[in-house]
Amino acid sequence: MFITECELIHISFSHNQFLYFLINFPPQIKVMHFDVSKPIAIGSDHAGFAQKQQVLEWLSKKGYEVMDEGVYENVSVDYPDYAHPVANAVEEGKAAFGILLCGSANGVAMTANKHKGIRAAICWQTEIASLARLHNNANILCLPARYISTEDAIAILEKFIHTNFEGGRHEKRVSKIAATV
Q: Rounded mean pLDDT of 27-32?
């Protein structure tokens, strides 16, 4: 059973109804959302720099605390140098989630996904961001800066932040993502 932060449940059962409920429903109720009391880690390479600056401005206006892992100027850099610190912050629980930007988002996603417990998703539409959260419990959003507008990037980010993981049948699948070798 999945409950969002905003829902309140009041259940009133007879003894037999309660036993039926325990037998026929999952044993736990989960709220799977980002803990935005923690900062959001963000990083980009040179191709994502301009869009990252605009996303930072939007996050600041919305009151989110941010860990900017660079790049800090528009100069040619190697994307792993910025994707690893964001992935580390998420992996270590220092950040609520991460945002990575590069030209296609492929390089930063590949780099971040090398980290244990990281599920970095390339999202170019709000529906993809929603599904990445709902079904895959993505914890790093990767944006292809050369292929989406800043307005689209912000809409995608907003959807990512406000969509909760469904759990249930998806939880079993997500638990199989990490390599066991």
A: 44
